[in-house]
Amino acid sequence: MSSSPTRYGAMPKELPSDDPDDVLFNSLYGVRTIELNRPKKLNSLNGSMARKILPRLREWEKSQMANVIMITGAGPKAFCAGGDVAELAQQNKEGPEGQKKSTDYFGLEYQLDHLIATYSKPYIAVMDGITMGGGVGLSVHAPFRIATEKTVFAMPETTIGFFPDVGGSFFLSRLDGEIGTYLALTSERLQGVQAFYAGIATHYLDSSLLPQLTTRLSELVFRDYASLSERLDLINSTIAEFTSSLPSPDLGKGSSHGDLSGKLREAIDRTFKHDTVEDILSALGQEAQSGDEYISSWAKQTQKTIALRSPTSLRVTLRQLREGKNWNISETFIREHRMAAKFMAHPDFVEGVSARLINKPPTQPVWKPASLAEVSKEDVDEFFTIPPEFEPLALLEPQEGALDQHFKEYPHSVFALPSEADIEQLVRAYGHDGPKAVIQAVVSRWNNKVGVREKVQEVLARKTKPEDKGISWKPQMPSL
Questions:
Q1: Catalytic hit among 22, 165, 176, 424
Q2: Domain 23-260+309-382 sits in which CATH superfamily?
Q3: Catalytic annotation on 275?
Q4: For 353-386, what is each residue's pLDDT tens digit?
């Protein structure tokens, strides 16, 4: 797959039937804004919206007047609650022709996500409110992702007989430890600042400050020949002007286990490191016997949660995360397009969407196959094989200044909190001088970014041990 050349296709065009007002575009000096405008549908993304946003992004790439792109959602509840999957499920009931329409929608969505991931200009996603599924695709690959107190993040695809797409293979597999595996298999929600500490968002602001931030960004003056890196640095320092302090990442409303730190995080890494769903469930069973009531309760609840998910979705999702660690950004979307097509022809997607989102009141989905034991390796292989008759996704040809189309690590990760790998590197360099020296080194390297100190302290408490006068990184425990 990775050795075959990437295909490029034509820019999609609006259709006469597209809603003229589902996306609003505005300019404020050098800032260009995209507002998803379907508040009654929680700004869920559909083909009409994607067909508007794609050519506008390309137009702004070519414009010397457009300095910063910001995407937001209309209304008080959501940035974007996902793709309009109810419409897709109805199409799939039409048979192969309808399933082809649904697959084409995913192709359009993934072209947009890929353009955002490799975009040649600064792009800021304001994740103010519900940010799930398709909304994650519009935000998580961007250099700047702002969470607020209203952010509710989740990848709930396994609840509807699907898989965490929109580049989930890439971004979830690169989160610290097994956070990505946990979020993907359980659909756990992260609230507010929890999304920032987990690495989903790069910044956290109170939503009341967003209008002021937009105004401030519109006032920025860039040198004519400033590189993308220089422009991003200036934007990063500007957003930092509005981040003075952070709320405690305690358990959010509606989130039973959202604070992924301390002993819970250790349990997540222990249980979700395995490469089969059965082994993960077995490890959760062991944790359920824990003498720690909190961990025991979490493990039992998590077992029940996974048992409700589509067995096919669980198997495909776990494999996509393990393989996705090695995919580049273009390969990710091409492979996910094939996986999405396969799911459109699978009974679980229509069943899951109907049961959860269409039926009133919601019903319990009846998965086919109904158990993990009935989902064979050969069944799963089909999602990861591109047959000769299947036409791979054609991406949009990059403009001059676009990022490498085949990067394997996010080029702008420095704008988020340091990863555990970053912290480990500095522990090995400065750990002999003790934890204070490590914390100071990380805080200095991240330019005193708000939240860095707190994250480093939490990681050091979990991942290091005293040694002589300093600290050292704990060796990784082998899998059982």
A1: 165
A2: 2-enoyl-CoA Hydratase; Chain A, domain 1 (3.90.226.10)
A3: no
A4: 999 999 999 999 999 999 999 999 999 999 999 9
